[in-house]
Specification:
The structure holds two protein chains of two kinds. By secondary structure, chain A is mainly α. Chain A has helices at 10-24, 34-58, 88-107, 116-135, 139-150, 158-165, 171-200, 205-210, 215-232, 241-248, 251-259, 261-276, 278-283, 285-303, 309-329, 333-346, 349-364, 381-393, 400-415, 417-442, 457-464, 468-490, 496-509; strands at residues 67-75, 80-86. In chain B, helix 16 packs antiparallel against helix 17 (315-336). The chains are: A mainly alpha, B mainly alpha. Chains A and B meet through helix 16, helix 18, helix 19, helix 20 and helix 23 of A and strand 1, helix 8 and helix 9 of B.
Amino acid sequence: MLEHISYSDLNLRFLLLCPVLGSITPLFIPNSRIRLIRWIGLCASLITFLYPPVLRIQFDPSTAKSQFVERLRWLPYENIHYSIGIDGVSLFFVILTTLLIPICISVGWSSIRHFGKEYIIAFLIREFLMIAVSCMLDPLLFYVLSESQFRFGATPYSTIIIGVWGSRQRKIKAAYQFFLYTSLGSVFMLLAIPLILLQTGTTDLLILLTTSFSERRQMILWIASFASFAVKVPMVPVHIWLPEAHVEAPTAGSVILAGIPLKLGTHGFLRFSIPMFPEATLCSTPFIYTPSAIAIIYTSSTTSRQIDLKKIIAYSPVAHMNLVTIGMSSRAAAGIGGSILPMSSHGLVPPALFLCVGVLYDRHKTRLARYYGGLVSTMPNLPTISFSSTLANMSSPGTSSFIGEFSISVGAFQRNSLVATLAALGMILGAAYSLFLYNRVVSGNCKPYFLHQFSDPNGREVSFFIPFIVGGATVRLIASLLTLLVRMGVHPKVFPDCMHTSVGNLVQHGQFH
Amino acid sequence: MEHTYQYALIIPFLPLPVTTSIGFGLLLVPTATKNIRRIWAFLSVLLLSIVMGFSANLSIQQIHGSSIYQYLWSWTINNDFSLEFGYLIDPLSSIMSILITTVGIMVLIYSDNYMSHDQGYLRFFAYMSFFNASMLGLVTSSNLIQIYIFWELVGMCSYLLIGFWFTRPTAASACQKAFVTNRVGDFGLLLGILGFYWTTGSFEFRDLFEITNNLIHNNGVSSLFATLCASLLFIGAVAKSAQFPLHVWLPDAMEGPTPISALIHAATMVAAGIFLVARLLPIFIAIPYIMNFISLIGVITVLLGATLALAQRDVKRSLAYSTMSQLGYIMLALGIGSYRAALFHLITHAYSKALLFLGSGSIIHSMEPIVGYSPDKSQNMVLMGGLRRYVPITRTTFLLGTLSICGIPPLACFWSKDEILNDSWLYSPIFAIIACFTAGLTAFYMFRVYLLIFDGHLRVHFQNYSSTKNSSSNIPKANNRNLLLSTMNNKVFFFQRICINLIII
């Protein structure tokens, strides 16, 4: 991130174009040929999925410089340019995005009855936005793209995904709440960016990183950007949108929402707030620690009382992301490196859990835990899959979330042991509610008054979908998410390899001591 | 013999192929996997006996002089933060691995027959092998992180095994209770690990001991902080070994099948907490307050477990409380500082308690045709009685186990318990009086269990018996039932008898 190579590398352009083309093509196909549209969407997303490994092979993990950089002139007068590039941290998010979108499309294969074409278009545009925001090196465009993921209503983004394809009446209220909460936070950042522009005359990240803002101005800018990021993290007073949005969204919507957009808050912190405003971050550390620690304990306790399966799973990102912010504010190498790992593993665990709940919902059309019980006797494969994901949710050793949580605890403990203790308390409570959810649904007696027919995921998918590979792909893709989880847990060197140089750079550059 | 030491890394991983193959087999080729079910049992026993041979070899080398061997390699490097993994073979870990493997083999052979009519037979062996692997990994760990990882894995295996019969709601809630209680302990353990990492900068045991001792002697670290971290580490052991405040999961853990009660909740998993305290004893010894705390918790647990065991109706529950009480003895011994007596008692108790649990399993299986399969009835001692005529071999072995636990010479537990009582007199008369009193209580409740089950007459017939009415109609039925019991004699599982015999010390 420190040096830009000023040439245009076509790699990323291809990566971004592919979903856009895939989303534009269905516009020309009439609604009646929905199967063709779905296949086009799936192929486009699969092609996009096949490309990042190419990037990974060409990626050079020994430097922290952004690679595959492309700069285009956009607004030359204000010196705002469109610059995208990938470094270690973004690479993983790109891979995650391209992995999740084909899953989402195949999840919604038959359960989305109306507006099928718009669904495919929405998800592919979503994919484009997510990849773009992961690669974006310019703060203004980062802001624009991240907000557009959340709110703008003209094209189908999250609000519309919830509003159109959500499952209950409450979805309107949830979408509305989602919109308002994120707007509230972002408007402050919208004011901060022109302030930066006024002082430095450019939004080029390279120059901004070397600019030294005065301390008072740093505080203002930091608070403004914090307001925006805090809503996205989500931190405690403004976290309500998360359970609402996840519960009301369709399965695929929750999967995607848990994928990248939840990381935007912490990603923004990592990439923009901490490097650009180091003194302000130093001063505001208690200000981050307090809501994060409260959030971990409060949300984990609240989750134990929930009865909606999806809400329980939706609350766990709050705890995880607040753990990440504690790690990031700890300013130790272990803390920051450790905070990226939960972000990455978090892109894999709640999606897997949401998919499991989605499988149940598709069959029984209810998400209330009181109707479920003893599932393992009739659907043995589903609990196997969801147990692995539940373990990962609890940060059990052997899964990817453990290392991250552990590194964060080490880093945080060295800065402030009280906060580390409170964060570790979240570990107990997290285990309690995750296991409670799993236990209630899986063990115990079947409840024949409520549920009459059961079917194991594989069988259902085969009978439902004509191409076996698409149907089984849902379950197989869950399995691949699992292997990724375990692989990261057992051999995490795969990912940190790319990341640790960038992280080291970040720590150095932030002038942390 | 450096040669054999280098291959010691396979000790934890040998039982794993059984787990993974059963897992994948059940997912991909279920019918074929289920057809060769007995072979899986044979394979697990075979692998575990290889490990047993290996650990016996290692411990013989330990006895003959070569002491500690540690081998490390690094796993993750996050800038300056690297996790190193390896194994540490010293006398403590080799004796523990012998214990785990021998009791494990016996329990596996037993459960081949015990679970033979169970639908979850294969799942059971997969979980058992996984548990054996994690436990072996725990005892051969060379640093605190590795212990923590295997600690959690062992807790997870315990969850899976306690909730083995998942359709029972009581089993479902029991496994959850066990896991969450263990998690409370893990929270303390994690914080203790972090605290020590902060002060000493290392997770390795040897570095930890050296640096901590230096710091404490030179007042480099505030003694309050050191005591706090040590007590947090101890909290982990408290949860895992069912000591006083966090003992609540152990009686409910009896919802699991009897072989796992024998393996996990008598011999091995509850020994994990003791193992941790024993491993970290060089740190604890340097902090006097924590030693007093450990012995206090130990003595409270001793008395509490014994008094609770006096009034139990369920045979497995009373054995569970007995385990809790004996673990209190071991913790008391560790708190006093008599390391050898504590570990000696751990080993003798593990074998005797496993014997008792396996014997009780035989009794339960014998009662099931008469009273039904509900644990309320088949484990209920009130309904048993006079079984010595029908299951004489189980009776002999159970009697030997009982005598051993009560501390009757020349059986095993006498020597170890006597040493603990002796050392406790030197430490504090109050603790010694409580410990001796509890030894008396132990004798009382253990023989209560034995006599209720094996002596007298089968009380299940006399459930509705009252002195005034219906006495004449009961007697013909009693005759028929006695006939049933005498034919049942031949049905007591042969293998079980062999295993029980083999466990006798």
